[in-house]
Amino acid sequence: MTRRSVAAGLIVLAAVLVGLGIFFAHTGLERGDRLASVLSLFLNVVGVASGIAGALAGWLAWRDSRSPSTTGPAAAGPPAGDPAGTGSIRTGSLNAGGNINIAGGDMYFGGEHHRPDEPRRSA
After folding, report:
1. What H or E segment, with its residue span, contains residue 107?
2. pLDDT of 89-101, one tens digit each?
3. Average pLDDT for residues 33-50, to the nearest whole number?
């Protein structure tokens, strides 16, 4: 957040508080109390509806993540970088010094081929 946006937010907050003060001075505290009760009812209804919508969206996402996929990686065959289906994928170079396929198979360190059960060759 920048200082300019914080300052703008504080100015808006001050304007709202001044406006509420003027409103309550003209209408009286009794009428202002009734208005605040009605506004809080509507805000609570919106809050409950938002909570229900969020819980429903989360439940649907959870349910979809647990169902078997017919269009996922298992149905599509080997990944694009692995046409032979060997379980090893070369994606390109990384700034960290090479590619690592953690799921199993081969590891490539800076273009050097290394199997997990072989010791790494030093240059």
Report:
1. strand 107-109
2. 555 554 554 555 5
3. 94
